[in-house]
Structure formats: structure tokens, C-alpha cells
Write a structure and sequence with these properties.
Blueprint: H1 10-39, H2 44-81, H3 84-111, H4 113-118, H5 125-140, H6 143-157, H7 162-184, H8 194-218, H9 236-268, H10 272-308, H11 312-339, H12 341-348, H13 352-366, H14 369-384, H15 388-400, H16 402-413, H17 415-445
Helix pairs in contact: 1-7, 1-10, 2-3, 2-5, 2-6, 2-9, 2-10, 3-5, 3-6, 3-9, 5-8, 6-8, 7-8, 9-15, 10-11, 10-13, 10-14, 11-13, 11-14, 12-13, 13-17, 14-17, 15-17, 16-17
Length: 446
């Protein structure tokens, strides 16, 4: 049966599912890099403003992961057990939860935008205004992003990663067309600057969501998303099932973002160029992050279906294949960051001070890329087993250590000390997560 991940060669099954997801994640990276490249032409203050506003869209991703991860794991495990009726129920509940949470988050951001941006204490008026404009637009219409992420997870749970890829490709093309038009205002078009970047991003997200919704209707193959009723009452049993898996993942993502916000506030003390570097550097780094996260999403569905079907040996072998694949990718990215930081920084920055800061960031962060890739992949595998709470505890504990570590290291190393706090904790988390997975599988197979 199409979408069944419990049969067939492991490598072929994983690659067939993972490649479109990784490509979709790469398209997500291109979304952000495209925005940053065009916004970079407005100067580092505009980039810093978008960096701060982007923190709140990032925070929303953590919240959205509750419906996505809870729905994806529950649907995949139900499919693995052959219970498609219950899989449909979980899919409907996940979409409903995503819509409600997306609307609630948007309302909160619109009401408290000034206070939220004020947390970062941006001294430059231009950077503050840019952050406020970006936050109100991008977060005010964040419901499209919530639904897109959840639908992507539910498609993936069924072994269909091609439809989300096609949707994201269409969205990327639209984003690349709208960015220069809305940001710079060539010819007869008005120049919207940072607000234009936010409008382009939100429009692209709405298009991606729409394509996936249309895909549900036109596909002839069986899809648990068919016949979803958005306004039906959510059964408490299904809601508890999604929350049990999804809440730890959401708390982990939001805590990770909250910690990064505190670090960004520390970075802001070194000037707008430093904030801009952290924002752009994070987008450049997402070349490895999004790719590993994409493979982790595929591994999550693979593990969940096979675990639901009792195929524990396929779970173990699938993880081995994934570990080698993303590990080698991470090493390649590390080599590029460490060996060619200047060439990368010159693409996004046009001021000498900003270029200098960006080079230091890329070199230091480069040493932790492979470990970060391994961490994300292992979280995907553990979540597929339903162990999201354990993932949350490990991740939050060691990510939180970045704050005191950054304070200590920055006293002697300045801004570089903050970058080293990020890298060192990534190395530790990568090692600990890998050891944890092998320990759990040994217990399950003994």
C-alpha cells in the first residue's frame, strides 16, 4: 500500500520519503535567505529589526509544533497499526487545534507588539520601527504558518512528502517574485521596505497552505485528511492524545526560542550589526538545520509507523542510516563555514564591521554543525517512539546552559564568547541524544 513505511528496503524507503522533505526544508531556508539578501540592501538596522521580529515568528513555530508533532506521531502510529479511522480523527483534531492556536497567537501579538519588541531594548529608532512593523504583519497572519506546518506533518505521517514539497516550491517562487517588488519598489511599485518582506512571506505561506488543501481534494489515493470538518467538536480523547505527544515538543521549541531571545538581548549590547549578524547567521546556518530537520521529519514518520507495527529492528536500522547521512552533511557544512566565512558574509553584509562580526560567527558556529544535525535527527527518532517528554527535558536543560555560559565566556571573549556558548552546547547535546537513543532501543529489544 502506498505510504506504508513498514515494508521494503529501509534505505530506499527513507530516502524516498526524506528527499522531498529535505528539499522542502531547503526551500524554507531559501525563503529566509532571499528575504535577508534583499533586506540587506536596506542596511544592517533593517536586518536587525527583521531579526527581532523574526524571533516571534520563530516562537510561534514552537507553539505550532504541538499540533504538528502530536498529530504526525499519532496518525503515523495509527496507520502502522492499521487503524485509519482513528488516524482520520487525530488528523482532524490536529488541524482544528492548529487553527485555534494560530488565531490566538496572532491576537496576542497584535495587542502586545510594542511590549514584545521593547524586550530587546533596541536603541536605534530605525531598527525598533522595523521590528514593530515586521512583527505586526508576520505574526498577525501567522495562522497560515500554523496550518501549513500541521498539514505538512500529517501528509508526512502517511508517507507523502511530495505534495508538501510541490506546495513549498510554488510558495518559494511567489516569495522570490514578491520580495524585490515589495521591499525595494522598483519602477511604478511603492517601496514598503521591511513591511514588504513580511507581506511577501505571509502571502507565500497562504499559497503553500492553499496548495496542500487543494491536494487533499484532488488526490485519488486514500488520505486521512479527506472529509475534515474544521468546526466539529474535538473529542477529548483525541485532544489528550495529541497534547501528550505535542506539548513537550512545543515547550521544547518555545523554551529554545525564549533562550535565544535572552541571548539576542545580550548580543544587542554590541550594536545593531551584532544583532543583524546573529539573525542572518542563523538563516545561513539553517542550511544544515533545516536539512537535518527535514530528514528528522521523515525518520519520525518511519519510526512511528514501524514502532506501531512492532518492527523494532527496522526502527534501529533506519536510525543508523539516518545518523550517517545527516552526520556527513553536517561535516560538509562545517567545512564550508570554517573555510569560506568571508565569501558567505559578503553576500549579506555591505558594511565592514558587520562583515567582520559575521566571519567570527560563522567560523565558531561551524564547529558544532555536525553535532546539531545529529541532535535534530535523533529527536525525530525519539519523538517517533513517543518519547517527546524525554527530548524536551534533555534539550531544555542543556540549551538553558547557554545563558550562564554566555555570561561567563563573554566577560573574557566578548561577542565570541556568546557564539562559543552556542557551539559547545550543540556538541554536548548531539552526543547525549545519540547515547540516549541507543540506550532506549537496547532496553526495548532486550
Amino acid at each position: 500500500m502506498e505510504g506504508n513505511l513498514t515494508k521494503g528496503p529501509i534505505m530506499k524507503t527513507l530516502v524516498k520519503l526524506a528527499v522531498p522533505i529535505m528539499a522542502s526544508s531547503f526551500l524554507g531556508t531559501l525563503y529566509n535567505i532571499t528575504d535577508m539578501a534583499w533586506i540587506g540592501l536596506l542596511g544592517s538596522k533593517a536586518v536587525a529589526g527583521v531579526g527581532v521580529g523574526g524571533m516571534f515568528t520563530w516562537l510561534s513555530q514552537g507553539l505550532a509544533s504541538m499540533a504538528r508533532m502530536g498529530g504526525q506521531v499519532q496518525v503515523a502510529q495509527c496507520i502502522g497499526r492499521g487503524d485509519r479511522k482513528k488516524a482520520h480523527g487525530f488528523a482532524q483534531a490536529a488541524v482544528q487545534l492548529a487553527a485555534v492556536m494560530g488565531i490566538m497567537y496572532a491576537v496576542i501579538c497584535l495587542v502586545f507588539a510594542e511590549q514584545m519588541v521593547g524586550f530587546f531594548q533596541l536603541e536605534d529608532a530605525e531598527a525598533h520601527a522595523a521590528a514593530l512593523a515586521y512583527t505586526k504583519i508576520a505574526c498577525g497572519l501567522i495562522v497560515f504558518s500554523f496550518l501549513t506546518l500541521t498539514l505538512t506533518g500529517l501528509y508526512t505521517a502517511q508517507g507523502d512528502s511530495k505534495t508538501p514539497f510541490i506546495a513549498n516550491l510554488i510558495g518559494l517562487v511567489m516569495n522570490m517574485i514578491l520580495d524585490p517588488v515589495l521591499i525595494l519598489g522598483p519602477g511604478p511599485f511603492p517601496k514598503f521596505g521591511v513591511a514588504g518582506a513580511a507581506v511577501a512571506t505571509v502571502t507565500a505561506q497562504a499559497i503553500v497552505m492553499s496548495v496542500m488543501v487543494v491536494g487533499i481534494a484532488v488526490q485519488k489515493k486514500e488520505n486521512v485528511l479527506k472529509g475534515i470538518r474544521l468546526f466539529a467538536k474535538i473529542p477529548s480523547e483525541l485532544l489528550r492524545g495529541i497534547c501528550r505527544i505535542g506539548i513537550p515538543t512545543a515547550l521544547q521549541g518555545m523554551a529554545y526560542c525564549g533562550i535565544s531571545m535572552i541571548l539576542t538581548r545580550m548580543v544587542s549590547g554590541y550594536g545593531a550589526e551584532a544583532v543583524a549578524t546573529q539573525r542572518v547567521g542563523g538563516q545561513i546556518e539553517s542550511i544544515s538545520w533545516n536539512t537535518a530537520d527535514g530528514f528528522a521529519a521523515a525518520l519520525n514518520a518511519f519510526v512511528a509507523q514501524n514502532y506501531g507495527a512492532g518492527e523494532k529492528e527496522r526502527v534501529r536500522k533506519g536510525y543508523h542510516v539516518s545518523l550517517w547521512t545527516v552526520g556527513l552533511w553536517g561535516i560538509l557544512v562545517s567545512a564550508i563555514f570554517i573555510c569560506f566565512p568571508g565569501a558567505i558574509a559578503d553576500v549579506f553584509f555591505h558594511e565592514p564591521k558587520a562583515v567582520e562580526i559575521a566571519i567570527g560567527y560563522l567560523v565558531i558556529i561551524g564547529f558544532g554543525e555536525a553535532f546539531m544535525c545529529v541532535e535534530l535527527t535523533t529527536i525525530g527518532a525519539l519523538s517517533g517512539l513517543g518519547r517527546t517528554r524525554l527530548c524536551s527535558v534533555i534539550s531544555v536543560a542543556f540549551t538553558s546552559a547557554r545563558i550562564p555560559l554566555a555570561v561567563i565566556l563573554s566577560e573574557s571573549m566578548g561577542l565570541h564568547g556568546i557564539w562559543w556558548a552556542l557551539t559547545s552546547t550543540s556538541v554536548v547535546k548531539g552526543i547525549i541524544f545519540t547515547c540516549t537513543f541507543f540506550w532506549i532501543m537496547r532496553k526495548k529489544t532486550s
